[in-house]
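Q: How would the C-alpha cells look for this protein?
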Amino acid sequence: MKLIELELEKALENCESSKVLDAMNYSLLAGGKRLRPLLLFETCKAYGVDETVGIPFACALEMIHTYSLIHDDLPAMDDDILRRGRNTCHVQFDEATAILAGDGLNTEAFYVISQANCRDDQKIKCVEILASCAGINGMILGQALDLNYENKEVTWEELECLHRNKTGKLFAAAFMMASVLADDKIHCNLWKEIGERLGLAFQIQDDILDITKTSQELGKSNSDVENHKATSVSLLGIEEANRVLTKHFDEVIEMINSLELKSGNLIQLLEDIRNRQM
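A: Here is the predicted structure in C-alpha cell form.
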C-alpha cells in the first residue's frame, strides 16, 4: 500500500499547475482501498515478476478508477456529496472542474503507461486491455446500464451484467495486465473471468454493507435507494445475496489456485477483501 501511495503522489508531477490539477490530486490522493493496484502487484509477484515493473500500470488503473468515481458522483449521475470520507470533487470544487479532472485522469493514465520501463509490445497490449476494460465495452457500458436501469424492474441477470462491467472489468484489467508483464499468453481470458467474477462479488458485498452500515461508517453516500436502483439485496434478499457472494469468492480462489502460481499473498488479499467491513 505504501508503494502505490508514494507513486501516486508523483504520478501528476509533469502536469501544469491549475485548478483542474488541484482537483485531480484532491481525488487521486484521497486514500481508498487501492484494490486494483494491489491486485496487479500481487499477481505480478505470483508470477515471479518484480512488482516495481507494474508501478506505471498500477497508477494508471487507480487514475482510471478515480476518474470513474468523480464522474459517477456528478449531479448528472448519482449526485453524491460524500466520497472516501470527504466532499466529492464537484462539491469541493465545482461541476465543470470535476468533469475536467476526470477527463484529465483518464487521459493521463495512458501517458503514464507510455513511460513504463518494459517492452513496447507489453505496453501496447496493456493499453489495449485497459482501454477495452474501461471503455464502451467495459466500465462505461456498466455505467450506462446503471443509468438505464433507474426506476425500472431489473432481473438478476441484467444486474449481474451491469456489475461485471462497471466493477469487474477494472479488476480484470489488473489481473490481465499482470499476466502480460509475465509473458503469459495462455491465461488472459481466465484472468478476465476471474476479475469479472470478483467484481460481481465485490458489488454484492457493497450492497450488503450499504444496508448494514451507515454512510459515515462507509465514508461514502448511498444513493442507490434515492435513485431507485435495484441491488443484489433488493432482488435476492440478504440471505441469498450472502450465499451468492460466498460462491463467487470461492470460485475466484479456486480458479487462481488452478494456475499453480506462487499465489499465497494474492489469495490472502482476496480473503481480506472478502472480510472487509467498509
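The chain has one domain: 2-274.

The chain has a mean pLDDT of 93.

Upvote if useful.
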